[in-house]
Specification:
This protein has five helices and no strands. The protein has helices spanning 4-18, 22-26, 31-63, 73-110, 115-143. The longest helix has 38 residues, at 73-110. The model has no long low-confidence stretch (mean pLDDT 80). It is a multi-pass membrane protein.
Length: 144
């Protein structure tokens, strides 16, 4: 069971990381300062994330010392593969749609007949995410 400290600590750390970014979002800081602050805060966020995952994993490992484990290493790696398939395909689809959608809007604004053709390219970018989701579902179902 989590204690109150363990539940509030990540929330407090995230608030402490995001508070210095408020002047950047309000426009009171320059762009170079904003880039530097953003890079520092992203690095701090991932460092805190890694530390919290490490402490959670060691606590879970200590709790499972006396218990019998039923999940094998292969099943665990399969779940990680499913998560990576979904996450990376969604990231790729986001990049594809970010490039195709403005071009589709530009083509539609020039000629209304280009709407169907341009939406096909946007849908093809979204198809990448659906394929990744299907692959991850297949991986998870094979592990059951």
């Amino acid at each position: 069971m989590l204690t109150m400290f363990e539940m509030l600590l990540p929330l407090i750390l995230i608030v402490l990381i995001t508070l210095p970014l408020i002047p950047v979002f309000k426009g009171k800081k320059s762009i170079s300062t904003a880039k530097r602050r953003m890079l520092t805060h992203v690095c701090c966020f991932f460092a805190i994330l890694l530390v919290s995952v490490f402490f959670t994993a060691t606590k879970a490992h200590a709790a499972m010392e006396g218990a019998e484990t039923t999940v094998s290493l292969g099943a665990g790696l399969g779940y990680i593969a499913a998560a990576l398939a979904t996450g990376l395909s969604a990231l790729g689809a986001g990049i594809a749609v970010a490039a195709a959608a403005p071009a589709a809007i530009g083509a539609f604004s020039e000629n209304e007949k280009n709407f169907g053709k341009s939406m096909i390219f946007v849908a093809m970018g979204e198809g990448v995410a659906i394929y990744g989701l299907l692959i991850s579902i297949i991986i998870v179902l094979m592990k059951l």
